[in-house]
Amino acid sequence: MPIITRKNYLYTVRPGDTLYSIAQKYRSSVQEILRINHLFPPVTDPGLIFPGNLLAVPDLTTTGKVSYIVNPGDSIHSIAYKFRTFVDLVAGINNIENPNIIYSGQSLIIPAFIYEIQMGDSLFSISRRFGIPLQNIISANQGRPGFQPDVIWAGYQLILPQNTSRNIFVWNPLPGTKVTSGQSVEGQARAFEANVLHQLRDDNGVIVSNERFTTADIGAPAYGTFSSTVPFDRNPSSNTGELWVYTRSAKDGSIQDLVKTTVYY
Protein backbone atom coordinates (compact mmCIF):
# COMPACT_ATOMS: atom_id res chain seq x y z
CA MET A 1 0.00 0.00 0.00
CA PRO A 2 1.24 3.50 -0.80
CA ILE A 3 2.08 4.65 2.71
CA ILE A 4 4.49 7.58 2.53
CA THR A 5 7.49 7.19 4.84
CA ARG A 6 9.35 10.42 4.07
CA LYS A 7 9.04 13.15 6.67
CA ASN A 8 6.11 15.52 6.20
CA TYR A 9 5.28 18.86 7.76
CA LEU A 10 1.72 20.11 8.19
CA TYR A 11 2.01 23.83 7.60
CA THR A 12 -0.66 26.54 7.85
CA VAL A 13 -0.25 29.23 5.20
CA ARG A 14 0.48 32.72 6.55
CA PRO A 15 0.17 36.15 4.90
CA GLY A 16 3.06 36.72 2.54
CA ASP A 17 3.80 33.02 2.01
CA THR A 18 4.36 31.61 -1.45
CA LEU A 19 4.69 27.99 -2.47
CA TYR A 20 8.33 28.69 -3.29
CA SER A 21 9.10 30.16 0.15
CA ILE A 22 7.38 27.23 1.88
CA ALA A 23 9.25 24.71 -0.28
CA GLN A 24 12.58 26.37 0.46
CA LYS A 25 11.95 26.42 4.21
CA TYR A 26 11.10 22.72 4.47
CA ARG A 27 13.45 21.20 1.85
CA SER A 28 10.57 20.46 -0.50
CA SER A 29 9.60 21.45 -4.03
CA VAL A 30 6.78 23.53 -5.44
CA GLN A 31 5.73 20.71 -7.79
CA GLU A 32 5.47 18.17 -4.98
CA ILE A 33 3.44 20.54 -2.80
CA LEU A 34 1.13 21.20 -5.76
CA ARG A 35 0.75 17.49 -6.50
CA ILE A 36 0.11 16.02 -3.09
CA ASN A 37 -2.30 18.82 -2.07
CA HIS A 38 -4.07 18.75 -5.45
CA LEU A 39 -3.62 22.49 -6.00
CA PHE A 40 -4.96 22.51 -9.53
CA PRO A 41 -8.31 22.20 -11.36
CA PRO A 42 -10.99 21.07 -10.81
CA VAL A 43 -10.38 21.69 -7.09
CA THR A 44 -8.69 25.08 -7.26
CA ASP A 45 -6.85 27.40 -9.60
CA PRO A 46 -3.27 26.25 -10.20
CA GLY A 47 -1.13 26.94 -7.14
CA LEU A 48 -3.74 29.12 -5.45
CA ILE A 49 -3.27 29.25 -1.67
CA PHE A 50 -4.70 31.50 1.03
CA PRO A 51 -3.71 32.29 4.62
CA GLY A 52 -5.22 29.64 6.85
CA ASN A 53 -4.88 26.80 4.33
CA LEU A 54 -3.30 23.67 5.80
CA LEU A 55 -0.71 22.12 3.48
CA ALA A 56 1.12 18.81 3.62
CA VAL A 57 4.74 19.67 2.81
CA PRO A 58 7.07 16.72 2.10
CA ASP A 59 10.70 16.90 3.12
CA LEU A 60 12.35 15.39 0.03
CA THR A 61 15.60 14.66 1.88
CA THR A 62 14.44 12.86 5.03
CA THR A 63 12.30 9.96 6.22
CA GLY A 64 10.48 10.21 9.51
CA LYS A 65 7.32 11.08 11.35
CA VAL A 66 4.71 13.72 10.57
CA SER A 67 5.25 17.09 12.27
CA TYR A 68 2.72 19.87 12.72
CA ILE A 69 4.02 23.45 12.53
CA VAL A 70 2.36 25.52 15.25
CA ASN A 71 0.29 28.41 13.90
CA PRO A 72 -0.53 31.61 15.83
CA GLY A 73 -3.57 30.88 17.98
CA ASP A 74 -2.93 27.15 18.22
CA SER A 75 -2.83 25.34 21.54
CA ILE A 76 -1.82 21.78 22.32
CA HIS A 77 -5.49 21.17 23.10
CA SER A 78 -6.64 22.35 19.65
CA ILE A 79 -3.90 20.36 17.91
CA ALA A 80 -4.70 17.21 19.90
CA TYR A 81 -8.40 17.63 19.14
CA LYS A 82 -7.81 18.06 15.40
CA PHE A 83 -5.84 14.83 15.22
CA ARG A 84 -8.11 13.02 17.70
CA THR A 85 -5.45 12.27 20.28
CA PHE A 86 -4.60 13.46 23.81
CA VAL A 87 -3.02 16.62 25.18
CA ASP A 88 -0.85 14.56 27.55
CA LEU A 89 0.47 12.46 24.70
CA VAL A 90 1.27 15.36 22.35
CA ALA A 91 3.08 17.17 25.16
CA GLY A 92 4.87 14.03 26.34
CA ILE A 93 6.22 12.77 23.02
CA ASN A 94 7.50 16.29 22.29
CA ASN A 95 9.12 16.73 25.73
CA ILE A 96 7.00 19.76 26.57
CA GLU A 97 6.98 20.33 30.32
CA ASN A 98 4.20 22.94 30.33
CA PRO A 99 1.46 22.06 27.79
CA ASN A 100 0.11 25.61 28.09
CA ILE A 101 3.25 27.04 26.47
CA ILE A 102 3.96 26.45 22.79
CA TYR A 103 5.12 28.99 20.26
CA SER A 104 4.37 29.88 16.66
CA GLY A 105 6.63 28.02 14.23
CA GLN A 106 7.38 25.21 16.69
CA SER A 107 7.51 21.73 15.13
CA LEU A 108 5.49 19.11 17.01
CA ILE A 109 5.44 15.40 16.21
CA ILE A 110 1.86 14.17 15.93
CA PRO A 111 0.54 10.59 15.74
CA ALA A 112 -0.30 10.50 12.04
CA PHE A 113 1.00 9.24 8.72
CA ILE A 114 0.50 10.06 5.05
CA TYR A 115 -1.33 7.88 2.52
CA GLU A 116 -1.46 8.49 -1.23
CA ILE A 117 -4.94 7.88 -2.62
CA GLN A 118 -5.21 5.23 -5.34
CA MET A 119 -7.78 4.77 -8.11
CA GLY A 120 -10.93 3.21 -6.69
CA ASP A 121 -10.35 4.42 -3.15
CA SER A 122 -13.04 6.14 -1.10
CA LEU A 123 -12.74 7.70 2.33
CA PHE A 124 -14.94 4.88 3.62
CA SER A 125 -12.71 2.15 2.16
CA ILE A 126 -9.57 3.89 3.47
CA SER A 127 -11.16 4.18 6.91
CA ARG A 128 -11.93 0.46 6.99
CA ARG A 129 -8.59 -0.64 5.53
CA PHE A 130 -6.57 1.22 8.16
CA GLY A 131 -8.99 0.87 11.07
CA ILE A 132 -9.25 4.64 11.50
CA PRO A 133 -12.66 6.26 12.14
CA LEU A 134 -13.93 8.23 9.15
CA GLN A 135 -14.58 11.37 11.21
CA ASN A 136 -10.98 11.31 12.45
CA ILE A 137 -9.73 11.37 8.84
CA ILE A 138 -12.06 14.24 7.96
CA SER A 139 -10.99 16.24 11.04
CA ALA A 140 -7.27 15.82 10.29
CA ASN A 141 -7.70 17.05 6.70
CA GLN A 142 -10.08 19.96 7.32
CA GLY A 143 -8.63 23.23 6.11
CA ARG A 144 -6.65 21.70 3.27
CA PRO A 145 -7.49 23.44 -0.04
CA GLY A 146 -7.52 20.18 -2.02
CA PHE A 147 -9.67 18.20 0.43
CA GLN A 148 -13.34 17.44 -0.09
CA PRO A 149 -14.95 14.67 2.01
CA ASP A 150 -17.32 13.65 -0.79
CA VAL A 151 -14.79 13.66 -3.67
CA ILE A 152 -11.21 12.41 -3.45
CA TRP A 153 -8.54 12.30 -6.11
CA ALA A 154 -5.94 9.68 -7.02
CA GLY A 155 -2.49 11.01 -6.16
CA TYR A 156 -3.75 13.24 -3.36
CA GLN A 157 -2.01 12.52 -0.07
CA LEU A 158 -4.26 12.17 2.97
CA ILE A 159 -3.30 12.78 6.57
CA LEU A 160 -4.33 9.69 8.52
CA PRO A 161 -4.37 10.18 12.31
CA GLN A 162 -3.25 7.08 14.20
CA ASN A 163 -5.15 5.42 16.99
CA THR A 164 -3.47 6.09 20.35
CA SER A 165 -4.31 5.82 24.01
CA ARG A 166 -3.55 8.60 26.45
CA ASN A 167 -0.26 6.89 27.27
CA ILE A 168 0.84 4.90 24.19
CA PHE A 169 1.77 5.85 20.61
CA VAL A 170 2.88 3.09 18.21
CA TRP A 171 4.80 4.35 15.18
CA ASN A 172 5.92 1.00 13.78
CA PRO A 173 4.20 -0.88 12.28
CA LEU A 174 1.90 1.68 10.74
CA PRO A 175 -1.73 0.71 10.20
CA GLY A 176 -2.21 -1.33 7.04
CA THR A 177 1.29 -2.84 7.17
CA LYS A 178 1.81 -6.44 6.07
CA VAL A 179 3.56 -8.16 8.97
CA THR A 180 5.65 -11.31 9.14
CA SER A 181 7.22 -13.19 12.05
CA GLY A 182 9.83 -11.00 13.71
CA GLN A 183 8.03 -7.75 12.86
CA SER A 184 9.52 -4.76 14.69
CA VAL A 185 7.33 -2.86 17.14
CA GLU A 186 8.34 0.67 18.15
CA GLY A 187 6.73 3.58 19.90
CA GLN A 188 6.53 5.68 23.02
CA ALA A 189 4.73 4.96 26.27
CA ARG A 190 4.12 6.45 29.69
CA ALA A 191 4.14 3.22 31.66
CA PHE A 192 4.55 2.15 35.28
CA GLU A 193 8.07 0.73 35.70
CA ALA A 194 8.37 1.29 31.90
CA ASN A 195 6.72 -2.09 31.15
CA VAL A 196 4.96 -2.29 27.77
CA LEU A 197 3.21 -5.45 26.52
CA HIS A 198 2.15 -6.59 23.07
CA GLN A 199 0.45 -9.44 21.27
CA LEU A 200 -0.75 -10.14 17.74
CA ARG A 201 -4.19 -11.48 16.84
CA ASP A 202 -5.98 -12.35 13.64
CA ASP A 203 -9.58 -11.48 12.84
CA ASN A 204 -10.76 -14.93 13.92
CA GLY A 205 -9.46 -14.32 17.43
CA VAL A 206 -6.40 -16.54 17.04
CA ILE A 207 -3.45 -15.23 19.07
CA VAL A 208 -0.71 -15.31 16.43
CA SER A 209 1.97 -13.93 18.77
CA ASN A 210 1.61 -14.53 22.49
CA GLU A 211 1.76 -11.70 25.01
CA ARG A 212 5.32 -10.50 25.52
CA PHE A 213 6.76 -7.48 27.25
CA THR A 214 9.44 -4.95 26.56
CA THR A 215 10.77 -2.04 28.58
CA ALA A 216 10.76 1.62 27.58
CA ASP A 217 13.98 3.53 28.13
CA ILE A 218 12.27 5.81 30.69
CA GLY A 219 9.41 5.08 33.07
CA ALA A 220 6.38 7.19 33.94
CA PRO A 221 5.74 10.09 34.20
CA ALA A 222 7.92 10.48 31.06
CA TYR A 223 7.03 8.98 27.69
CA GLY A 224 9.85 6.52 27.13
CA THR A 225 10.79 4.97 23.79
CA PHE A 226 10.29 1.23 23.42
CA SER A 227 11.16 -1.33 20.76
CA SER A 228 10.55 -5.06 20.43
CA THR A 229 9.84 -7.79 17.89
CA VAL A 230 6.76 -9.95 17.34
CA PRO A 231 7.54 -13.61 16.57
CA PHE A 232 4.68 -15.79 15.30
CA ASP A 233 3.76 -18.58 17.73
CA ARG A 234 1.14 -19.95 15.32
CA ASN A 235 0.05 -19.28 11.77
CA PRO A 236 -2.67 -16.67 11.21
CA SER A 237 -6.03 -18.08 10.11
CA SER A 238 -7.11 -14.89 8.31
CA ASN A 239 -5.47 -12.27 6.13
CA THR A 240 -6.08 -9.42 8.57
CA GLY A 241 -5.67 -8.84 12.27
CA GLU A 242 -4.56 -6.45 14.99
CA LEU A 243 -1.41 -5.67 16.90
CA TRP A 244 -2.25 -4.93 20.51
CA VAL A 245 0.11 -2.75 22.55
CA TYR A 246 -0.86 -2.01 26.14
CA THR A 247 0.03 -2.01 29.82
CA ARG A 248 -1.47 -3.98 32.69
CA SER A 249 -2.83 -2.65 35.95
CA ALA A 250 -0.50 -3.13 38.90
CA LYS A 251 -3.64 -3.55 41.02
CA ASP A 252 -5.56 -6.32 39.22
CA GLY A 253 -3.61 -7.18 36.05
CA SER A 254 -6.29 -5.88 33.69
CA ILE A 255 -5.34 -4.46 30.30
CA GLN A 256 -4.92 -0.68 30.22
CA ASP A 257 -4.08 1.91 27.54
CA LEU A 258 -4.80 -0.57 24.75
CA VAL A 259 -3.80 0.59 21.26
CA LYS A 260 -4.99 -1.58 18.38
CA THR A 261 -3.26 -1.32 15.00
CA THR A 262 -4.82 -2.95 11.95
CA VAL A 263 -2.31 -5.19 10.17
CA TYR A 264 -2.29 -7.67 7.26
CA TYR A 265 -0.69 -11.12 6.94
TrEMBL record:
**InterPro entries xref list:** Gmad2_Ig-like_dom, LysM, LysM_dom_sf
UniProt-listed Pfam families = Gmad2 (PF10648), LysM (PF01476)
Q: Which SMART domains does the protein's record reference?
A: LysM
Q: Where is the LysM domain?
A: 9-57, 66-110, 113-160
The name under which this protein is listed is: LysM peptidoglycan-binding domain-containing protein
